[in-house]
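Request: Give me one sample?
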Amino acid sequence: MAQYNWPPKREEELMLWVEKLRALVKRFGTFGYAALLLLVIVLWLSTGFYIVRPGEQGVVRRFGRHVATTDPGLNYRFPYPIETVDVVNVANIRRTEIGFRTSATGKAQGILEEALMLTKDENIVEVQVLIQYRIKDPALFLFQVQNPEAILGSAAEVALRSTVGRMRIDDVITERRAEVQTETQLFLERLLDVYNTGILVTEVRLQIADAPLQVRDAFHEVVRAREDRERLVNEAQAYMEDILPRARGESRKIMEESIAYREERIRRARGDASRFSQVLEEYRRAPDVTRERLHIEALEEILPRSNKVIMGQGADSSVLPFLPLRGMPGLASPERMKMPANAGTGEEPASPGGAAERPRGNMRRNLDNNRETQ
């Protein structure tokens, strides 16, 4: 059955098929020619079916002119040479590099002709950018421009140089790196739309933004010095923010304490003045009694705070009672000394002052009696 394999792989097989067709035509005559022609047309028309995979689009051309763009799935076009189709992957993320090239081993090699740029403050900076993109319009990508990738690289370099040229070198290297990426992407998208490249930029990533290699170390020293300055300024600011509220709180506390002390002194002075006025009024009524009363009250206030030694007539005349022996180890405490000797016998305790307490009570009673008579 090898002679029936189609299409024929050798000239002998092809000639065998031709002889079979001639025999078939001679057998059926004109009807055989028509059937053969119809079979050829059907086979030719069947070649117009094509499949577009997910993430792809088909660009249909009729005699070289773009007539339709088809979506993924089974599609049909007029067979060649009437219509042809170009299938383009529009979902794949592609990349282009500005200022460097990546070799097959994955090592990046800098391209100084593209990487060196001039900033606003007339300094030279080395910038390397990675651009990721995809095809958004396959018809424009295929037919509008001759080399879309080359135009993308040139437009990206123009956009990057324009963005870097409007900034200072410090902004490009440290402070405004994200802004460099954003502005470059916006400018590049506008240029690609003007050129009708059919390319959509998805990301602009800044790989390297630094001073040239010859002056890189010195520039880094300057950057570190500025960072140290900023750090010291921030530390001083933090110290100020810590010490100022504390000082304000202390000053407020002192002011409140002074106000409270002032109010206390004023009220105490008013109380003392009121008490003095009342005593003065009583003194005018009974001078002798009031004077004696003031004397006794002064003694009542002073004597409890002093150490008193009361000796009778038969007591020893040595200096031992006058020595400061109270509170020494082995001696009775003041509270225990005040306890009466007959506390355990059930007898009525005597007053702490003994005989000295009775004259004071008699003196008060005499003063009260004198005031009543007056």
In short: The longest strand covers residues 124-135. Residues 338-363 have pLDDT under 50 and may be disordered. The radius of gyration is 58 Å. Residues 216-285 form the longest helix (70 residues).
